[in-house]
Design brief:
The chain is of the alpha/beta class and 638 residues long. The chain has 23 helices and 15 strands. It has helices at 11-24, 26-33, 37-53, 55-68, 101-104, 117-122, 144-154, 165-168, 180-195, 211-217, 224-240, 253-261, 276-298, 300-303, 324-347, 352-364, 377-383, 418-421, 445-457, 482-500, 545-556, 562-600, 606-637; strands at residues 87-88, 94-98, 158-162, 199-205, 246-251, 306-312, 315-318, 390-393, 397-402, 424-427, 463-468, 505-510, 530-532, 541-543, 558-559. The strands form 4 sheets. Strands 2-3-4-5-6-8-11-12 form an 8-stranded parallel barrel, surrounded by 5 helices. It has a 3-stranded mixed sheet with strand order 7-9-10. Strand 13 and strand 14 form a beta hairpin. Helix 1 (11-24) packs across helix 4 (55-68) and helix 19 (445-457) runs parallel beside helix 20 (482-500). The chain starts with 10 loop residues before the first helix and ends with a helix. It comes from Solea senegalensis (Senegalese sole).
């Protein structure tokens, strides 16, 4: 709301205020409600006569409207954390877990699959932690029945997975070749899910673009991706749409654009600062809209399904909720993150704050136009409303404050970036728990704030939470993941509070079902409810304590009472102790087998022995020696 004060003279904003005036001004509400010629005449006269006459008078009217309509806008100054809420979710609420193709399937070059940008990127040196790849990952390609059994044991209502574009169309170009073995794999997965009463929610793009399209056209920098992606989506609707009723076009396009084409941290690893992310996002939004229209015109009548998009967003909370500049910075943070994609899809164009800030900085840099692309009038109309439901991925929160980044002629376009365009700084509270990923702090109340923001900004759309979970970064095997139990308990409870606030959340997806390949972090971080032993070629799965806890939430459809919920936690930890013993025994057997193999094959396995046994042993001894030396120095000083 704070930013609107500075942009209310724009015609689109005037129309917005007139709408609020019609809805919220009590003195005229009854007149409009009568739907009489006199009421119509009043509104027409207001638009055609009073508006052009008196700009000053309008300023006063609009300020009054802001006050009158404040109850309908998001209130940045109100942050009621509240206590834990015991209660249940609405009947029919859907509980699930998720995964993605590249992160779990493995079989990267089997049965006719083509290369993806992640296959190529992960094989480059030093692009991924410890040079890990997703070549085999969880071997999910060969474990469909086993993994569906895990879902059934969890009592999931739905399972979210993605379809690998190059597994179906190896080059990404439909006219080149369709891989029927890839079709067969997803047929089998979908059929097994349905046989076990688990609803498939299918993502069409979870970051694994066919490498040929990257090499030939430049990937999402090129408008031709819109057509190729639409052809791929149409093939999926044709082959799987008789059984799949929930489609997600893109997962977290923010990461695709920013980390793939701005920072280069993710595939394809390009660093096109200040332009690459905006161009990629522009084409992704157009591709999403075209796929939605394709389904709407060709398949919806026959298949009765829905098409949405999954947008990930951290929440941004003002450092000082009484400081207007901090409030504006926090709103900018969320608009540059979530609004970048959601506002065009729900309202037809980019957030005004993005257009203003990027446009102004582009001008200051001496550029002829804004680095943020524009939609034509026809495109705005075509994109607006292309969302049957909104998928929301959320993990953490940041405190936000104002920070001015230089953007004059001296700071050339090479120093401009998506991050400096926002003019803000991100902060964290050192008291927030951070068990795993360096970016992931547990801040449950931010989830409720985000969901209520979506409700106020986009007309309370149907929401499915498509990603929510927490990682751990541990060198020792630990199935008793008490911190994950706490995270799920708190975040799911904040979602329940949001539903009580009136937010239309219809389902929740725990991220993720299995430990898996975590992009540039490789296998160094684990998000799974089930532990996967990646050192074992069979990739066995072991339930963590969070499996039992999440299963109880699903069975009870919420949190019945304090005593019962505390009992769930206790039983979950007890169960994981026996699982820990089982896993430890298996790891001992695996280690012994590796040692025997190294003994019997010393020449070919010399380097494996160095990396698997010698290096860890030397590192451990070095740490112990350093600790002893440090203790000696401290004692000497005392």
């Amino acid at each position: 709301m704070g930013y609107a004060v500075f942009t209310f003279l724009h015609w689109q904003t005037i129309q917005h205020f007139l709408k609020h005036l019609k809805q919220c001004t009590a003195i005229h509400q009854d007149i409009w409600a009568q739907n009489t010629p006199a009421a119509d005449e009043f509104f027409i006269r207001f638009r055609s006569t009073m508006l052009p006459r008196c700009a000053l008078g309008l300023c006063h009217v609009f300020m009054l409207v802001l006050c009158l309509s404040a109850s309908e806008d998001f209130d940045w100054t109100k942050n009621d954390h509240g206590s834990f809420h015991y209660g249940t979710f609405p009947a029919g609420f859907s509980w699930g877990a998720g995964s993605s193709a590249y992160q779990t399937e493995g079989a990267w070059d089997k049965d006719g699959k083509g290369l993806s940008i992640w296959d190529v990127f992960s094989h480059k040196k030093d692009k991924v932690q410890q040079n890990n790849t997703g070549d085999s990952s969880c071997e999910g390609y060969y474990k469909v029945k086993d993994d569906v059994s895990l879902m059934k044991e969890l009592k999931l209502n739905h399972y979210r997975f993605s379809i690998s574009w190059p597994r179906l169309i190896p080059t990404g170009i439909k006219s080149d070749h369709i891989n029927e073995k890839g079709i067969q794999y997803y047929d089998e997965l979908i059929d097994h899910l349905l046989e076990n009463n688990i609803t498939p929610i299918v993502t069409l793009y979870h970051w694994d673009l066919p490498q040929v399209l990257q090499e030939k056209y430049g990937g999402w920098q090129n408008i031709s991706m819109v057509t190729h992606f639409n052809e791929f989506a149409n093939l999926c609707f044709e082959r799987f749409g008789n059984r799949v009723k929930y489609w997600i076009t893109f997962n977290n396009p923010w990461s695709v654009a920013v980390e793939g084409y701005e920072t280069g941290e993710h595939a394809p690893g390009l660093r096109l600062r200040g332009t690459g992310a905006y161009r990629a996002a522009h084409h992704i939004i157009k591709a999403h809209a075209q796929v939605w229209h394709t389904y709407n015109t060709q398949w919806r009548g026959k298949q009765k399904g829905q098409v949405g998009i999954s947008l990930s967003a951290d929440w941004g909370e003002p450092v000082d909720i009484s400081n207007q500049k901090d409030i504006e910075a926090a709103e900018r943070y969320v608009q540059f993150y979530l609004g970048w994609f959601a506002t065009p899809i729900f309202h037809g164009d980019y957030p005004q704050v993005m257009k203003d800030f990027i446009g102004r900085k582009s001008t200051q840099q001496g550029l002829g136009g804004s680095r943020l692309p524009t939609f034509s009038t026809q495109e705005k109309s075509y994109i607006k409303g292309t969302c049957d439901f909104l998928g929301v991925g959320h993990f953490t929160t940041r405190y936000i404050t104002q920070k001015n980044n230089p953007s004059g002629p001296s700071s050339s376009s090479s120093s401009s970036s998506y991050f400096t365009d926002r003019d803000l700084a991100e902060l964290v509270d050192p008291r927030w728990p951070d068990p795993g990923s360096e970016w992931l702090y547990s801040v449950p109340w931010g989830f409720r704030r985000l969901l209520n923001f979506i409700k106020s900004q986009y007309g309370n759309p149907l929401i499915y939470v498509t990603e929510n979970g927490v990682s751990e970064k541990m060198f020792c095997t630990e199935l008793c993941d008490d911190w994950r139990i706490q995270y799920y308990k708190d975040y799911i409870n904040e979602m329940l509070k949001a539903i009580k606030d009136g937010v239309s959340v219809k389902g929740y997806t725990a991220w993720s079902l299995l430990d898996k390949f975590e992009w540039d972090e490789g296998y160094s971080e684990r998000f799974g409810l089930y532990y996967v032993d990646f050192r074992n070629k069979n990739k066995p799965r072991y339930p963590k304590a969070s499996v039992q806890f999440y299963k109880r939430i699903i069975s009870s459809n919420g949190f019945p009472n304090q005593r019962e919920v505390e009992n769930w936690r206790k039983k979950a930890v007890e169960t994981c102790s026996s699982s820990n013993q089982l896993l430890a025994a298996e790891e001992q057997r695996s280690t012994a087998a590796n040692i025997l193999r190294l003994i019997h094959d010393p020449l070919t396995s010399h380097m494996e022995m160095v990396t698997e046994i010698v290096v860890p042993t030397v590192c451990t001894l070095s740490i112990l020696l350093c600790a002893i030396f440090l203790m000696f120095l401290l004692r000497k000083q005392n």
